[in-house]
Amino acid sequence: MGKKINFFVLLVVVIICVYSASNYQELSSVIDSGDTAWMIVASAFVLLMTPGLSFFYGGMVSKKNIISTMLQSFIALGVVSILWVLIGFSLAFGDSIGGIIGNPLTYFAFNNVGLEPNSDFSSTIPFLLFALFQLKFAIITPALITGSFAGRVRFRSYILFMVLFSLFIYSPLAHMTWHPDGLFRNWGILDFAGGTVVHMSAGFAALAGALFLGKRKEVALSPANVPYVILGTGLLWFGWFGFNAGSALGANPDAVIAFANTNIASATAMITWIFYERMLGRKMSAVGACIGAVVGLVAITPAAGFVNIGQSMFIGFIAAIISNYAIHLKNKSNVDDTLDVFPSHGVGGIVGMILTAVFAKEVGLIYGQTQTFLYHLLGLLIVSVFCFFGSYLLYMIVDRVLTMRVREDQEERGLDLSQHGEKLE
User: Does residue 285 fall inside a structural domain?
Assistant: First the structure.
C-alpha cells in the first residue's frame, strides 16, 4: 500500500509541473551570450560537486557503508531537483513575505520562470538559468549534512528529512540572504556564494543530527578508500570555481576575483593544514590535505567576491588552524560527528562570515566601518540558533514518522546491505 501511495504522490507532482510550467518564449535581445554561456558552465560545475562530495565522504567511511554514504549525497540530485521546481525556488526567491520567506505561489512549479531575464536577480541571463544555478546550491546543502550521521541513518528517513530541511531551513535562509527584499540582505549582511546559506546551515544541522542520533557502535573510523577522498576533493575544488565565480552571475571582473580567491584560499588552507599537523607531531596525511583544502574552500565562499588575494590567503590560513583545532575538541567530546561536518563546514563557514565583515572592500572593519561587522555577528547568532534548533526539531518530527536510526543488527551489517541490498566487493 505504501509503495502505491509513494508512486501516486510522484505522479501528481509530475502532472502539476506539466500543466503549471511556463511556455518558454524566444530569447530576448537583452540576453548577454557571454554571461549566459558562463552561467551554464558554472551551473554544470556546481552540479559536479555533489558527485564529488559522494566520493569525498564515501572514501572516509568503513567499507560496509561506502555505497550508502555515497548514495545519500547522490540521491539529492533527484529529490531536491523535483522539490525545487515544484515549490522550493518559489519559497527561496518568490515575492517576499516579511523578508523571511518567499510566496510559494509566485513561481509554483516554475510558473513564470522562463527565458526572459528577471532584473531583480540578474538582468543579462535567462531567469530559468538563474533558477537552475540556484538549484545546484540547494542540492548539495542537505548532502553535506550526511557526513555527520554516516553509518547509522535509515535511507527513507533521511529522504524525508532532506525534503523538510530544504523547505523549512534552506529556503528561508536563501531568501533572507539573497532576495532583494530579504532580511539579511537589507541589513547589509554579505554572503557572496553561500557561506551562511549552505555551509553554516549544513554545519549546524549536522551537529544537531549527530547529537540526536547519538554515537555509533563502532566509533573508531579508518578510511576505506583514500584515493576516493582525493578524487572527491579534486571534483569539489573544480566545481567550487562554478560555486564561487558563478555567483557573480556573469562573465565579469567579480567572477575573475572570486575564481582567483577560491583557488588561493584553498591552496593556503591545504598547505597550512599539513604543516600544522606536522608541527603537532602528526603525519602529513592525504586525508588531512584534502580536509584542509575543503575548509579553505568553505571559508572563502562568503568572501570570494569582496576581498583581495592577500586577504583570501589569510582567510584560508586562519580557517585551517581553527577548524583543525575544532576537530581536536570534537574528538575529545561525546559528539559523534562521523566525518567532522560541523568543524569543517560549520566552523569554516563561521570563520568566513566573520572575516568577510572584517575585509570586505569599503564596508569591512579594516576600513573603519563597524555596521557590517555588527550585523554579521547578529546574523551569525540568528543563523546558528535557527539552523541548530530548527534542524533538531525536524529530526524529532521525522523520527516520529519514520524511525531515523537503523537497528543495531543493521548497523553491524552495514548500511550497504541493510538499506540497499548491495555491497562493495
Answer: yes
